[in-house]
Specification:
Helix content: 10-25%
Number of strands: 9
Number of helices: 1
Order of helices and strands: HEEEEEEEEE
CATH architecture: Sandwich
CATH superfamily: Immunoglobulins
Strand content: 35-45%
CATH class: Mainly Beta
Strand order of the largest sheet: 3-2-5-8
Distance between the termini: 82 Å
Largest sheet: 4 strands, antiparallel
Structural class: mainly beta
Number of domains: 1
Length: about 140
Amino acid sequence: MKHRPTTFLWLLLGLTVSLTGCGKGPRVFRLPVFGAVSLSSGEKPNGSITFLPDEGRSGPAATASLVDGEYRFDHDNGPTAGPHRVMVTRIVPKETTLASRGDKKQPLAVPAETRTKWTVLVDLAPNGPYRRDFTLEP
């Protein structure tokens, strides 16, 4: 029965470790930002939107798909509060042109897509509003 105090100490140590966790670090508070992107011509582009912490600030980048001008982040993948550079990339697939060579038509070698990029500055407040719409010049 000499080992009882030692057993008790090991149980206490195990309980302490399990209650305090393994030190994942602090959770980053991300914002559920959503909105629309349009060109001044009225076009609703497809592509991607990325929120990058502004120069001199730290934090994760957040990227989402832009489909028919709409994007959406949630608490798991959204940007953090504070100033950001917002990069919008429009992707426009090029149509493949066919060339006739005898009885067969073959596609011409053309780039698969063109990309256009814009950068906008925005400051995200921690308590909202979380809707951010952007109108860009083509």
